[in-house]
Sequence to fold (264 residues):
Amino acid sequence: MLAEEELCFSQSVDPPDTVRFMLPSDAISIREGLVGLFALDLMEPLTAESLSAAQIVLAEALNNVVEHAYAQYPGRIEIWVTRRESYLFIRIMDDGLAMPGGDLPGGKPGWPEDLPEGGFGWSLIRNLSHDLTYARDGKRNLLSLCISVDYQG
Amino acid sequence: MKLESQHRGEMIVIRVLDDRIDAAGAIQFKERMRELIAEPSDRLVLDMSNVGFLDSSGLGAVVSVMKVLGPVRRLELSGLTPTVEKVFRLTRMDSVFIIHKMLPEEWRNAG
Fold:
């Protein structure tokens, strides 16, 4: 659970197109971080469709960090979001376990006949984002991706 | 996770009162649903019109409820908001569930 004063969005000044924030690695904090992020002025001009895609991608990426990178010990997640022209550039960093095999899992959607209860996450991320990259830098994981967005009006 | 269940003849309509079914609420959702579906009924409809956001954990929870019900008693979904609809469509789960655009008028006003 995230204490009120802990959730702090630092916004760049010139241009004011980037926010950076930190979240503890638990599902409630991720929820609170997402609700806070999507209430910022930075997100306000985007269409509902773009906001929905961005929130799905961020939720999946952040919950993956909680469930996998920080599966064995808790930690903090650092998130950078930049809105520039028709893109949101996202960077997510953590000090958890490396991605198995050092690379991103595939994102093949499950076959409905099997009725999988999980494994939808990467498929959603791959569907709604592009330029997805993963790097291990010492003890840090760095995931970066890009989401195409539209503006209202 | 707040869910509200109402009998409508041979049908139980379960309304999700929370606005998110996400990783933080998926387990609670599953547990509460299991209690509510223990009651017998021919049809079971999950009204999701209040749910603005659902992630893959939430989707997994809805799928698991359907699996608990077995092949005869199917879970019908109603009132999918745009983000929720997008998640069902992109994961192809929209082909697995019976999905109603919204609850018929008489169900919404009854009870």
